[in-house]
Amino acid sequence: MKKYMVVEHFRPGCFGELYKRFNEKGKMLPEGLNYLNSWVNKDNKICYQLMKSSNVELFSQWTKNWDDLTEFEIVPID
User: Cα-atom radius of gyration of the chain, to the nearest Å?
Assistant: First the structure.
């Protein structure tokens, strides 16, 4: 499986709504996309997530659940 750094830039004013949805529905990851760890910067504007998958196309399925609240940058790291 390949690892990826996912950089999420939260849309202005959406931080609270994003965590509300997360608490209600979880990460909503498709089968085969695996979460490893994450960090949010101290001003709650950017989240860095380490993930892995053997199918990069799964990211588009996952981001559809969140793209109204955040912008994504998917960076392969190995």
Answer: 12
Q: Are 74 and 54 in contact (CB under 8 A)?
A: no
Bridge partners of residue 4, in order along the sequence: 51, 76
> Looking up tokens 């994504």, which residue turns up?
72
Helix (H) or strand (E) run with residue 20 in it: helix 15-25
Q: Is the pLDDT of residue 31 over 80?
A: yes
Question: Distances from the Cα of 60 to the Cαs of 6, 13, 33, 44, in angstroms?
Answer: 12, 23, 11, 23
Residue 15 sits at φ, ψ, to 5 deg, of -60, -50
For residue 78, what pLDDT is reported? 76
